[in-house]
UniProtKB/TrEMBL annotation:
UniProt organism field: Rhodohalobacter sulfatireducens
SUPFAM superfamilies named in the record: Calcium-dependent phosphotriesterase
InterPro entries assigned to the protein according to its UniProt record, in alphabetical order: 6-blade_b-propeller_TolB-like (IPR011042)
Protein name (record): 6-bladed beta-propeller
Pfam families: DUF5128 (PF17170)
Source species, domain of life: Bacteria
Amino acid sequence: MNLQSPKIFWRSVLFSLLILLLLINCSSQEDEIPEKLRDLKNLTVYSANAKPEAIVSFQKVANYGTFEEILIGRIQDIGVDSSGRVFVVDMQKQSIYVFGADGAFITQLGREGKGPDEFSTIRSLQICKNRLYVYEPDQYQISVFTLDNLANKSSIFLAENRGDYQALGRSLPWINNLYVRNNATYLAGFIIHPDTQEFKPWQNVDYKILFYLLDETGRISSTKLFDVDQTHTVAGGLVDNIKVFFGSPMITMSSQNNIYVSDESEFFVKVYNPNGVYMRAFHYQHPQIPLTQESIKNGGIANTHFRPDFLLKNIKSIDLPQYWPVITDMKIDDLDRLWIATTAEDMSIYEWWVLEETGELITKFEWPRDEPIEVVLNGNIYTRKTDDETGLQQIVKYRFEINE
């Protein structure tokens, strides 16, 4: 019988140990990937401990809608054009205030109503190339202004051919999300209502949002691209998404019309091409923060859609999720960098991640939860700030620099 030499024996043992460690490591990495993502193709997994390659600094440069000049009751949405003008939607007055790049007030567009030069309910405002788009869901239309003179308004009625699509039979025809693409077409998310409308107070209801493309005339021009789920709650006579607790998938588009869709329960983003075909995805192994009564009281409901005092009064009646949403916001800047806000253990702040299109980390920074970032454009961020005493709001502009 031939015996192995000691050298050969120990080489064999070391080789076996290396194989075992490799298998354990691979198994450990697989265990860290959520089960629902394991079969997803073209998925890139990043470590939550990834170190930023750069640091970012901010300098405050302007205010828009100072509390003394223009009294903005509650900001619904804002937009910024290439010249730096800022357009602010006042939800209470259904008007749009226009400010110069230096913060000086320029003019007001529209007022509440359903006649000429009036708005019923402005849900969103977007700027693309030389056009200002104002979406009014109650009128099923989008109003389009030229930015040269803020005139030549035209109205485009949306999804008039929705009756041709059986899946949209229960969409009312409410478009929950509308995104303007850089070729003057649209991505629209139709919210599908449950069969029954008999809901109990504080009942959670699962809704589904179906996404389609609309052409430049507002007609549906594609089959369904994808869908997302959203939890709504019967609160105060309304059935709405309490986003601060339940989160909501975030959607944004690149300059090439690629579509980014986030998952609120994980640090996970899917990427679709302009035609809605899945391309790739990325995932960070990010910790989930327990949603507790104490964390709520420590500032977790700042700037919620619902009044904080109303939610605190009824908090025990809400069937809350176990964890806070991981991703709370997602923006994309003019260089197609993703800016993603995540829930932190410190309830007074969000931790923002700036990522390449691929999902690779560029930098991180902390930002006050009560001053949310609304727009990132041309080396500036535009935030929404609320006066603690009066509740009045304004936009604050900061210049930022990312230095490696």
